[in-house]
Predict the structure of FAD-binding molybdopterin dehydrogenase.
Amino acid sequence: MDLNTVLDVRDARSPAPWRPGDAWLGGGTYLFSEPQPHLRRLVDLSRMGWEPVRELPDGSLELAATCTIAQLSRFGRSRSAPAAPLVEQCCRAFLASFKIWNMATVGGNLCNALPAGPMISLTAALDGTCLLRAQDGSLRRVKVADFVTGAGRKDLGEGELLRSVTLPARALASRTAFRQASLYGLGRSGVLVIGVLDPVDGSLAVTVSAATVRPFRFWFPLPPGREEVYRVIDATVAADDWFDYIHGLPAWRRHMALRFAEEIRRELATRVTATAGETV
């Protein structure tokens, strides 16, 4: 779609004062999908030269805000880490053509803050941390689960930039389980639940998204029972936190989220003993 109110496009490599009507331009798949009458200038990030995915010395991964879904998918499929399959599962949760895959970015998906955003689901489940840069150059870090504050809302100041998301090595070494549901085939996610079992202390994190207006990450120091999972989710997610939209009513979203949470709990709590070879 033509944005006929935009008068200028600025290269982000050349610093200039932020002004009303400015917007960061990553892949542009959302910006150019509908009218943006409040915009006057786009600040283009496409030439920043940020490495899409970078492995840090401590084994964690840094995903650049400009990393495209296609780049992330290729990287995930090339890795052997226990959590690597989750990357592809979340990439495939997009309702998008190959053209979108090659333009849409991780940062754009987070900053749109839509409940069905699968990059939000992925990075929140793996305990990701956002690196944010203000116009004065100052930096701050916010957990992904806290960065998205509601449907279309995020913890991002005027002119502030999401630079990257870091996924800790410990989460990448975890076993994961993935469940997703839509009201129709190839539809937008109505419910997306991810479980992450820590390899060090055996703790379990269950992240509910798409069904809710923001991601909810529940951490259990020991594998919980079914009733505990249900109780914690119902005590934390308020009635108006279940997303009410055409792609699924709140009651259906809650029902499926609880069902998937229990399936994930059972899947990740099941192990094969090294000695007897029996499932417990």
User: Anything to note?
Assistant: The longest helix spans residues 250-269. The chain has nine helices and 14 strands. Residues 8-44 form one domain. The first strand starts at residue 8 and ends at 11.
